[in-house]
Backbone:
């Protein structure tokens, strides 16, 4: 899936975004119905009364040179569509290295039994400076644990061990209510911004619904071209 760009993936993204747009619930995009390895800081908006697409504790997958172009993705690690888009996001990171800031924000879907467990594992890894390592591991192994009702917390702990985390610190982070609160902050912010499914993208604070890989890339190129 890392090949650039396949017709199947283009069609897949178009279907995903279309489903999000018209609000159809489904297994691919689920309608939300309820209420360097180390993440760097992101400047928060100066308008505290408005919902924010990023905050000072948002996780940066890749920084840019001047902060003028930022792509934010609200994601669910158990979402099949997020996993399908993941290789393309990785290819964009290479294409726009040093030019575009990529930010990942949590948006676990309540109907996904292990979405919160996965987010907890990633956030616990982030506290040890390994956000991206666990972020990638979740997508790479999603077929192994996704769409299952039983808790996969023990499997995620195995992932933590495999990427070299201090397991005592990992367990403490998982048990700490502030870790879940950090995830819920992202989800609530997403709801306030109108996010109703995953993946959902914001480019420089504006919700975008690209119908293809090329359209998403064109939108980014447009923002880069408009820089002063």
Residues:
């Amino acid at each position: 899936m890392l090949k650039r760009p396949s017709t199947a993936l283009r069609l897949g993204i178009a279907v995903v975004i279309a489903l999000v747009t018209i609000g159809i619930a489904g297994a691919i995009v689920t309608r939300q119905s309820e209420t360097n390895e180390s993440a760097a800081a992101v400047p928060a908006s100066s308008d505290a009364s408005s919902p924010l697409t990023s905050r000072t504790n948002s996780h940066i997958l890749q920084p840019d040179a001047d902060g003028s172009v930022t792509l934010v993705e609200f994601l669910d690690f158990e979402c099949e569509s997020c996993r399908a888009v993941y290789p393309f996001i990785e290819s964009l990171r290479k294409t726009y290295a040093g030019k575009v800031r990529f930010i990942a924000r949590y948006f676990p879907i309540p109907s996904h039994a292990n979405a919160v467990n996965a987010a907890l594992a990633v956030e616990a890894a982030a506290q040890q400076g390994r956000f991206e390592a666990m972020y990638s591991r979740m997508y790479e192994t999603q077929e192994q644990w996704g769409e299952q009702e039983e808790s996969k917390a023990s499997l995620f702990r195995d992932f933590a061990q495999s990427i070299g985390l201090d397991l005592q610190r990992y367990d403490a982070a998982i048990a700490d209510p502030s870790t879940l609160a950090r995830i819920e902050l992202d989800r609530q912010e997403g709801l306030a911004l109108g996010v109703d499914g995953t993946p959902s993208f914001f480019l420089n604070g504006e919700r975008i619904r690209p119908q293809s890989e090329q359209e998403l890339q064109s939108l980014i190129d447009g923002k880069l071209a408009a820089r002063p």
Observations:
- The radius of gyration is 17 Å.
